[in-house]
Amino acid sequence: MNQEIQITKLPSQRQQQQELPLPPEDGTIVKDHTSQDEQQQAAQGRHGAVQGGGHHHHHHRSSSKLTVLPLIFLIYFEVAGGPYGSERAVRAAGPLFTLLGFLVFPFAWGVPESLVTAELSAALPGNGGFVRWADLAFGPLAGSLLGTWKYLSCVINIAAYPALVADYLGRVIPAVAAGTGGRTRTGTVVGMTLFLSFVNYTGLSIVGWGAVVLGLVSLAPFVLMTGIAVPKMRPRRWTVQVEGSKDWRLFFNTLFWNLNYWDSASTMAGEVERPERTFPRAMAVAVVLIAASYLLPLMAATGATDAPPDTWANGYLADAAGIIGGPWLKYWIEAGAILSSVGMFEAQLSSGAFQLLGMAELGLLPAVFARRATLSRTPWVAIAASTAVTLAVSFLSFDDVVATANFLYSLGTLLEFAAFLWLRARQPDLKRPYRVPLPLPALAAMCAVPSAFLAYVCVVAGWRVFALAGGLTALGVGLHGAMRLCRAKRWLRFEGQQGQGDHAAAPAHTV
C-alpha cells in the first residue's frame, strides 16, 4: 500500500518534500483505507496542479488555449514544415528510395510516437510533457536527463532554420549564400533569430494561429506544383540511380531530421484545451498531412524533371518548381521556404521554452524558468535562454547540426518509450482519458520498430557526433547534480521550497 501512496506525486515533487520538513497541503495524504480509484484521482489532480504554472494558470482565458486546428499546424511545423530540406535524401540514395522512405517512415515511425504522445499527454496534461513521463516512471534523474537530451536536440534543430532560410535567400542574394562567411550572412542569421524569438514572446495563441496561416500559404505552391506535374510525370525517372555508392548515413539522417519531434507538442499540454480530446485528433490529422506534404511534391519533382540526383541540394525543389510551372512558382516556393522555416522556428522554440517551464514547475530547474510575461503569459525567461543557446550553435555546419540533434533525440526517445511501457506495466490504473487500445505485448512490439531505427541512428553517427553527444550527456548529469546541490543549500529558489503552494504562485514578470 505504501508503494501505491507514493505514486500520487511525481518523483521530483516527492524529493522536494523529503528534503524539507513542510506541512502537507490539504488532500495530499492518502490513508490506507482509501480506495484505489480515489488514490488515482488524487494522483491526476496533483499532475494537473502544476499544469500551466499552477493557480496563476487559471488567469488564462479559455480562448487563449490551443484548439485542434492550431495544434495540428504546430505539430506539422515541429515535425516537418513541408518538404524543404528533404532534397539531400535524393542526392544520397536516389529518387526511388527517397519516395519509399517518405511513404513508409511517417507511419512506421510517426504513428507509434504519436500514440505514445496522445496517451501520456492526456494522462499527465501539464507543461513539460515527456519530462513528466520519465520523472514519474524512473525518477528525477531520468526526467532531468531526458529533458537535457530533448531540449538540446530541440535548440540545435532551431539553429538550423535561420541557416536554411539564408541558403534560400542566397539563391537571390549571393552575399547571403552558404560558404561566404561574410557579415551579411551572419547578420541575416542573428537578426532573424532575435526577431523570431520576440514574436514567440507575444503569445502562444498568436504562434498557433500564425502557424495555421504559414502552413496554408507555404503548402499551396506544392499543391499547385503537384497538379501541374501530373501530365509530365514519367515513372522511369523515379528509378534513376546515384553515381557511386549510396550515402545511407546522410539518407537516414535527412529522413529522420524531416520526420521526428512528434512528441514536441507534449511540452505544451498545459496550454491545450481539453488535451484528452484534442491531442489524439490533432495527432491523427498531422500524420496524414505530413506524409502527403513530403511524398506528393517529391513524386512530382523527381517524376517531372530530368535532373540527376547529384544536383539535389538544399533549395533544389524551388528549381524543380520553376521547370514544372515557371518562374512564378519557383519564387513562391522560395518564399514558402522562408515562411516554413519561420513556422518551424516558432513552433519548436515554443516547445523548448514550455519544456523549461515544466521542468521548473517540477523542481528540476530553478523557479525563474517558470516566470511568465504578464500580458502574453509566455515563459519569457525560458524563451530568452533558448534564444541564447540557439545563437551559440547557429554557425555549426548543417550536417553536424542534423547528426548531433538526431543522436540526442534518439537517446531521449528510447528513454521515452521505456517510460511509456513502464507506466503501462507498473501503473495500469493510472487514469488515461485516451488509451492506446493495445495490450502490453503489442505495445512493446509497436515501440520496437521505431526503437530499432533509433538504435541505427546512434550506431551510424560519426566520432565527432559521439564525442559531442557524450559531452552533452555528461553535462546533463552534472546539471542535475548541481541543481540538487543548489536546492539543498538554498542557493537558488526552486518551486515548492517555501511551501507547497508556492509553485502555484510563480511570479509573472514583463521584460
Automatic annotation (TrEMBL):
Biased composition (Low complexity): 10-20, 39-49
Membrane topology summary: Multi-pass membrane protein
Transmembrane segments: 92-111, 206-230, 282-304, 380-398, 404-424, 436-457, 463-483
Ranges where the record places region Disordered: 1-63
Subcellular location: Cell membrane
GO cellular component, one term: plasma membrane
Gene3D superfamilies in the record: Amino acid/polyamine transporter I
Main location: membrane
GO molecular function, one term: polyamine transmembrane transporter activity
Amino acid composition bias (Basic residues), ranges on this chain: 54-63
Keyword terms: Cell membrane, Membrane, Symport, Transmembrane, Transmembrane helix, Transport
Protein family (similarity comment): Belongs to the amino acid-polyamine-organocation (APC) superfamily. Polyamine:cation symporter (PHS) (TC 2.A.3.12) family.
PANTHER family referenced in this protein's UniProt entry, alphabetically: EXPRESSED PROTEIN, POLYAMINE TRANSPORTER PUT1
Protein name as it appears in the record: Polyamine transporter PUT1
Biological source species: Miscanthus lutarioriparius
